Amino acid sequence: MEETMQELREKDRRAATLSHAVAVLGWDQETYMPASAIDERSEQLELLQTMLHEAYTDPRIGELLARLGATDENPRGDQSLAEQDQALVRHVHRWYTRRTKLPADLVAAMARETSLGQSIWARARQESDFSQFAPQLEKLVDLTKQVAECLGYEEHPYDALLDEYEPWMKTSQVRRVFGQLQEDLRTMVQRIVDRPQVDDAFLSEDFAEDKQEAFCRRVLRDIGFDVNRGRMDVSAHPFTTSLGRDDVRITTRYSRRNPTSALFGTIHEAGHALYELGFGDAYRGSSLADGTSLGIHESQSRLWENMIGRSRPFWSYYYPLLQNAFPERLTGISADDFYRAVNKVQPSFIRVEADEVTYGLHIVLRFNLELALVNGDIRVADLPDAWMQTSRELLGISPTTDAEGVLQDIHWSMGGIGYFPTYALGNLYAAQFYHALRSAIPDLDEQLARGELSPVLDWLRSKVHWHGSSLTATELVQRVTGEDLNPQYFIAYLDEKYRDVYGY
Ligand SMILES: [Zn+2]
Fold it and tell me: How far apart are the CA of 104 and the centre of ligand 1, in A?
């Protein structure tokens, strides 16, 4: 048994190592690669991706898993295996079966059509014309449904799609949680829009980029990002990528007339990076050294960005430092003015620019439309109208152009149906973890107000990060908070905060 287990560990390690090599090339492409290198880089990436696919679908892995007793009903394998080995068996069994269930021609068609889809989408969005993208999206929806059928599901084809991003989560659970979330968020938005709006005009003045960068790097250091185990660079779209256990890269971008974009973007990506840097030593080199789901990953970025980074105690420490960096811009603006400005709530069309309160409604909108598409309740051609109608119902406003509506996000052009829910789940997990964190550290606010951020990282590291993918998202939430995912923590967090900001 130990010999079989050892061989599985080696196969797993090979795949994990290859995936990090792919990440190095991808990171370089987005940051420093000269434009002329793109053709060769594509060839290099394609070769490595093929090797990676072979590593992930090596039939020997299937034999090893069978020998270790792993089945769909019993993915953890033989009970005599050590706890950590059972976790690895379950993890490998999951990615191996998902990948080998898909026929090669379907995988190839998906790769071809999504690559085409992205360029068609980009042009359609530029010209704000959904009809250009619709035929390609129809193909992608059709392929996605075939993927769901091949993967299999118990209740709903969407289960198979969601599982790619939020392993083990079921559509019925998302539906239940979002149903509750949607009602509470709409009520809260209504209360807020009835109140006088906060003034954030001073945030669109000119803020020098070099000073923004110095401030971002200061905060990055303070929250515990170790520059000996990672880097921060600039890219068109901020992202985090792991090149290994001790090398996690993040990017940000600076905008002179929007200084909070770089700042909160940096904190957000740092939250992702700290998760990647915090996996237990025992998982080094294994695929268990990975985020357990996209929702949990997003919970780590949102907790730092919103619950810490947009909190009153955080700014009672950092605002004087920021004022010092930009005296000509911030003199006469109080810490309270600043705090309220960075927590302004306003229904808007674009998801990525949405505030904490309306954000979830953008996700509910996409989830409802995706379900309707997969069910066949609406046709692709109906999407722009359905988008406008749902937006009016949820956010009280509806876009007049395709670019501000149905074409705004890249996900569908990449075949990513099932991805969106993880963004909102991230907020919910974050609030539930944050509640547990505050219970564990009763004087947290006082510590934050003194600029002491390490207790937050220490707690997250030992409670959340350490486990990597050895626990599922559901197991992790239960272990850390003592209960299942419960959207009430997020609602209570928002309600307490925005009652204060808006005085409703
Ligand atoms: Zn994120």
Answer: 31
